[in-house]
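ok here's the first one, seq then struct tokens
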Amino acid sequence: MMRLLNLITALVLGSTLNAASISAKYDISFSVFGKIGEATVSFKTYGKFYHIYIDGGLSGTAASIGQNRREVHESFGVIENGILKPELYKKIRRSDHRHEDTYYVFDPDSHNVQKFRFRQKNIYKSHFNWSKMKNVETMTVEKSDSLETLPYKAENDLLSLFFNVRTLLGEIPQGSEKSETTAGAKGEKGEITITNPAGKKRKEIAKLMPDNEDRLVTVVINQDIFQSDKGELYINLDADYLAKEAMLKDVLLFGDVRGKRVWQKGEIR
């Protein structure tokens, strides 16, 4: 559930490169359960440098069931000719019983990406203590780490890609699609496919998200958790190419998953 929540969080961003500072909040809901979480997003520039920060987590009953799972995603890099060029992508996952830190370090010349991952898991066991005549719980900590070079070259991470979508859409006519290799995407190829829909498909998405300005895209990410009919995420962008909402249709057991912007503040230059 948490991977689905935060991948949607990462995707409900849209894009603008003229923003000195923008922050927004999104509510995440399942059609079956209602609101199950929320995410806050910020994008800031410091001269030629940028920083994207996302903090997303479960809330209410979902938080209790999901062991208070939470994720933080960050992208650090430079801006060249209006394009974000990541240098470090950081992903932190936390819950009551485990945490995982993953770092992606980019080589700007070769576009090779080094991935470092650290995991810690708390393992709980209980046994009956006859001297105390009660159950006693013990905890052991299991740690692991790994270092590898991704099997593909990448110029974007999950966050920088979607803040670069304005440029990408300029290259994708309606009815066409484009695939990008992206650090943080699952699979040996790390591909994410963005489509600028046309015809019947565009009308279908517009009907699902009627508060739109005809800036509609679909995104397909290779993730096992995306057990929807086609694994397509629909995104509704505003005039600044920031996402107003996103929807994943017909997720197994849950119905539709929707991320909707509830507030935004910032400065557009």
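and now the second one, same deal
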Amino acid sequence: MTAFAVAVPGGEFTLIMIAVFGWLLSLCAWVAFLAIGRLRRRRVLVLVPPLLAAVTFALATFGIPMRAAFLISEAPLTDYANALPEQAQWSQNNGRAGLFTLDSARRWQGVTQLYISGSGGFLTKCGFAHAPDGHTKDIDVSTIDHVTSNWYVFCTDFD
């Protein structure tokens, strides 16, 4: 669940809340098994849940699920970005490109911005920007990070 929650830029808020609840339940179950003593007899099994949790949190922290989903979807996203007409207005479309559902898109001055549906939180919206020339200074967003050669992930805070 955690990998799906962080597979979109900025994370999907609802899935993140469900994943946090699941991790808390898992922690409680692990502590209960320790208290009962069933896991103490198998010392190696005691370490498996914390190691799995550490690996999962490390992957999520470094954005590996989002990068993997992006790499799978890079060709469809590039095709979609190249097919958009040059216009200043945002087009509202609920199309799909690869593994991502697009909320809105715009191609302006050679840079394509694609907002991903369900990304970010209450006052944050995130997506991908395709900048073939590498000019990201003109993009009006709060944060922007490089993903691959011409692709960037960005978030816009509306607060």
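notes on #2: The mean pLDDT is 86. The two ends are 28 Å apart (CA to CA).
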